[in-house]
Every structure is written in structure tokens, then in C-alpha cells.
Amino acid sequence: MAPPASPPTVTTPATATATATDTKAAARGPRRARLRLTRIDPWTVMKTAFLLSIAFAVVTVVSVAMVWQVLGAAGVWDSINSTIQEAIGGEDVADFQVEDYVGTSRVLGFTMLVAAIDVILITAGATLTAFLYNMAAALLGGVEVTLAEDA
């Protein structure tokens, strides 16, 4: 028995045109578009800056807590206590503890305060920068960007 015959290949004009267009596009290179950024929405900038500054604040507090715990585990506070007791001497210093002055709760509280102030300042600064950019773009025309398609 003979194998079934395959149908003949037919080239349609649409197939030939698509192939010719593809070769022209490949020879021409990637498409490019020149765009101008003339306005940035301040509300969007404020929301984005707020979320990023919240993330930065969380990272700051967690990193300070981790560093503080590592310093405690390494015996830094005991070393400071013994150094101060040896340097000053006397009975008054015998019960000196550096943690009474610079304890974990005090340091983390101060870090949270600084992080909250940073959230406010970063959000306000980014929003103000968006307003200033919009004013400068109105005068100067904005930033020109060339976008290219990957080959």
C-alpha cells in the first residue's frame, strides 16, 4: 500500500505579502517612538512615595532591631558595663547598666519616631518634586524619551 499523498502546498498572496513585510521590518531595524513626558500626576506620585517610604520605614525598624539583638548577643553591653565600672570605679558604679540608658525599647521607639518623620518628609518631598517638574515641563517642554522595540 502506498502512503497517502500530502496535499499540494499553495502560496497565497497574503502569505507572500506577510513574508515580504517581515523581511522589510527586519532589514529596517526596530521601531522607535519619540515621546515627551510633559506631566506627572502628583496624586500618583504621592501614593507611590507613601507606600515606598512605609516599606523603607519597616526595613529601617527591622534592621535596627536585628543589629541591636546581634550587639546584645555578642556581649557588647556587658563589655561596656565592665569598662565603665573599671574606668570610674567606686560603689556607685557597681550597679551601672548601659541598658538603663540605651535600652532596646528606647532605641526602637526612637527609630520608629525617625521612621514616621521620614515617611512624612519623603512623601511630601516627592509630591513637591512632581509639582516642580510639572511647572518646569510647562516652561521647557518636558523630557524627551525614545522608546525602541526589541529586535
Automatic annotation (TrEMBL):
Per UniProt, residues of the DUF3566 domain are 30-149
Residue ranges, annotated region (Disordered)? 1-25
Is-annotated flag, keyword Transmembrane helix?
yes
Entry's transmembrane regions: 49-71, 107-133
Q: Biased-composition ranges for Low complexity?
A: 8-25
Query: Keywords on this record?
Result: Membrane, Transmembrane, Transmembrane helix
**What positions belong to coiled-coil segments?**
none
Q: What is this protein called?
A: DUF3566 domain-containing protein
> Taxonomic lineage per UniProt?
Bacteria, Bacillati, Actinomycetota, Actinomycetes, Propionibacteriales
